[in-house]
């Protein structure tokens, strides 16, 4: 089974865009059953149930991953933690009166493995965003990536500061013994000065292939973006 962990140099850099495009690219490559997983979604709206189904907290990133996926699974598998507050996951969980348990996320991932040909796991925020902060326990998205033993794809939001963020994130990934399988350059600041020079520096110093370079185009859908995406 094929699986990847998608992280970003920050929040709002295009992780969901990349995850949904990767799902389509994997489908195009012949994987019949591909599913996206958002273990922790902070920032959800309440959606009333229909036809006797109960209501649920729903995040727009989860909606996008489900729309791209060819395999549909129970929400407890592809989104174990749906938290109302749009904040760091450990704070959103505390506000919701719950705790994020990495073992539970790992069990949900293994459940998906039993049914899918490929799983794309989208992390929350940046690579070391806190997921759980309790007495004697501090766990982050990086700890989750280590538990799942997945190769990592890093999304670099092209804007001022991206070189520092990308190189720090690469260092954090590699220092944990994880594989950086590739990276995506996603323009999030269309007026960025010296964009080409920044991209050249990233290509020279990131120790993995660039899988895609997407310009500023908010209207581009994941199926379209998948056409210009290289698989790791």
Write the layout of secondary structure elements.
Blueprint: E1 2-8, H1 15-28, E2 34-37, E3 40-42, E4 45-47, E5 56-58, H2 60-68, H3 75-78, E6 81-83, H4 89-95, H5 102-113, E7 118-126, E8 130-134, E9 137-140, H6 141-148, E10 152-158, H7 162-175, E11 180-187, H8 195-205, E12 210-214, H9 222-226
Parallel strand pairs: 1-7, 1-10, 2-7, 3-6, 10-11, 11-12
Antiparallel strand pairs: 4-5, 8-9
Number of strands: 12
| Average pLDDT for all residues | 96
Rg computed from alpha carbons, rounded to a whole number of angstroms: 17 Å
Which descriptor suits the 3D outline? globular
Strand share of the residues? 25-35%
Largest sheet report? 6 strands, parallel
**Fourth-tier CATH superfamily name:** P-loop containing nucleotide triphosphate hydrolases
Helix share bin: 25-40%
Q: Ends: how far apart?
A: 14 Å
Sequence of secondary-structure elements: EHEEEEHHEHHEEEHEHEHEH
Characterization of the model:
This protein is of the alpha/beta class and 232 residues long. The chain has one domain: P-loop containing nucleotide triphosphate hydrolases (Rossmann fold, 3-Layer(aba) Sandwich), CATH 3.40.50.300. Helix content is 36%, strand content 26%. The protein has nine helices and twelve strands. A six-stranded parallel sheet has the order 2-7-1-10-11-12, sandwiched between helices. Strands 3-6 form a two-stranded parallel ribbon. Helix 1 runs parallel beside helix 2, helix 5 packs across helix 6 and helix 7 packs parallel to helix 8. The longest helix has 14 residues. The model has no long low-confidence stretch (mean pLDDT 96).
